[in-house]
Amino acid sequence: MLILFFRKSVQFKEKDFLMKAAVSHLHHLQEGNTCPVVRLAYQILLTVPVTVASAERSFSKLKLLKSYLRSNMSQERLNGLALISIENEYLGKINCDKLIDQFVVKKARRWIFK
User: Which parts of the sequence belong to the HAT C-terminal dimerisation domain (predicted)?
Assistant: First the structure.
């Protein structure tokens, strides 16, 4: 019965629905102790694609960043740009006005001494 429901839920393309369905299946498997091996395989199945995609994305982005800006970049700047490039969907959700207001309140400025 779980397999049939999972097949039906995979047909939908929405990420939220798939995530909710996957979590509900995992909770259902954890409630009953009848299939511990299936539960373990399901946990691995749900976590492996996320970790592999993130690693592949980070390597490809890092390669692009290093080849484009290698000559004038410190390690700290490279790390920051790599993080921004990898997690760009979270960056789109940031409220820039709120961030600017926080910066103004802190009065944090870089001092240039001559």
Answer: 30-89
Non-local (6+) Cβ contacts of 46 within 8 A are 22, 26
Model pTM score: 0.31
Nearest to 2 by CA among 48, 39, 33, 37: 39
Contact, 10 vs 18, CB < 8 A?
yes
Residues 25, 9: Cα–Cα separation, whole Å: 11
φ/ψ (deg, to 5) at 43: -60, -45
Instruction: Cite the DSSP H helix spans in the chain.
Output: 2-10, 15-31, 36-69, 75-86, 88-91, 96-106
> In order along the chain (114 residues), what is the average pLDDT of each group of 10 residues?
52 61 75 74 69 67 69 74 81 82 74 55
